[in-house]
Sequence to fold (418 residues):
Amino acid sequence: MKHKDHERFITSSFLNFFTHIIGFGFGLLIGISLTSYLSKTFSLNFQIQQFLLPSLGAKPQLSPPLSPPPPSIIPITSTNVSVLVSNNKTKVASNTNEKRVIKKSKTRKGLSDFLEPPIAMHDMSEEELLWRASMVPKIQKTPFKQTPKVAFMFLTKGAVLLAPLWERFFKGHEGFYSIYVHSEPSFSETVPQSSVFHDRRIPSKEVKWGENSMIEAERRLLANALLDFSNQRFVLLSESCIPLFNFSTIYTYLINSTKVYVETLDVKTNVGRGRYNSNMMPQIDLSQWRKGSQWFQIDRELAIEIVSDELYFPVFKNHCNPPCYSDEHYIPTMVNIKFLMRTASRTLTWVDWSKGGPHPSKFIRPDVTIDFLKQLRHGSSCDYNGQTTNICHLFARKFTPHALDRLLRFAPKLMQFN
Ligand SMILES: *[C@@H]1O[C@H](CO)[C@@H](O)[C@H](O)[C@H]1NC(C)=O
Ligand SMILES: *[C@@H]1O[C@H](CO)[C@@H](O)[C@H](O)[C@H]1NC(C)=O
Ligand SMILES: *[C@@H]1O[C@H](CO)[C@@H](O)[C@H](O)[C@H]1NC(C)=O
Ligand SMILES: *[C@@H]1O[C@H](CO)[C@@H](O)[C@H](O)[C@H]1NC(C)=O
Fold:
């Protein structure tokens, strides 16, 4: 169309010439006012604009100009360029050399940049973090290959007390796991660069035992771990947890599992149903109320449901406060209502409640024997992907640092580390 106009322009009468000049002048006027309007309106959005309109930005370079170009066409072209790429760096260049404009503008990165997980410590607010973590790609098939990873999320007060054992556990399996640590904001410790825990602390807030700040911290850990698209399984651990098997056994067990591991017990006594509050209606009724271990092992789908839950979370914040302990009821109840078919209704973290009371037994040095660890590894049977197995627990708690030297001694042989 334009090309034809141009031919006519060369061969036709003065009348046509003037019509064209007027038309063009009008166009130029619109162009200029549009430029100044757009550059005002969109100057803040420049980065986004540039990202969203890559083909437009590159256009002047790709399509050859009309031949031969009347000198007056050039301002229009550079006008378009400065609309699309209207930062001050390029404006200067647009008068001189357009090719340089494109090269000098911020280098566009493709998918690899998008997939790169952010560093654990970031400056997103809680609201920003949860929103970003809740993203789900609508196209299921991924146009790239990624090794699925297991996210090990440590919810601690201070240091990961049994870190030397975990270091041994992770050694040699880089690329198959990610680590996240949520600890008290007041805690400060420099983790050596050689450690797997180096730079793995996430922006954390104070956590009070048994209060809602606990489930907030769990959601915060999940949200941070979700930012890495390759994380496919999510394991919540405390500073007193130990692994009962080597990395490859635990990895395969989790990645290959058809179920998630959230305990959903209907405990009819005062430490179960007794903690239900009828103000939780209509979102949660008594028959739906469940109790379970805080220490879950879940998949990406459920992790996204938890961080984006706006229905049950506020109910717990408002109506489940000590002696209602939300960390024992929030995820179990939500899973029972919405995802019951997806859970094995058990936890993979062994713990000893046999002595009663609000806290489970702690294990110190003399407790750690080969027989005891064998019992934890294979002492029971359960269902795994429709088959009976004698591996029912992959992790155990609560172990104190006094147990560490024995664990380090027994682990290589018994648990076949390395
Ligand atoms: C410049 O903008 C005009 C009007 O929006 C458009 O018709 C023309 O194709 C653009 N030129 C380039 C090189 O993008
Ligand atoms: C470009 O912007 C920077 C900061 O935004 C400013 O300091 C600089 O003077 C500007 N340069 C031009 C040529 O407008
Ligand atoms: C999962 O199980 C299949 C078949 O049982 C096996 O081929 C595959 O290697 C397992 N995946 C992992 C991560 O071990
Ligand atoms: C891990 O332990 C299993 C037995 O639980 C063993 O068969 C396997 O060889 C061990 N893997 C490595 C890498 O040592």
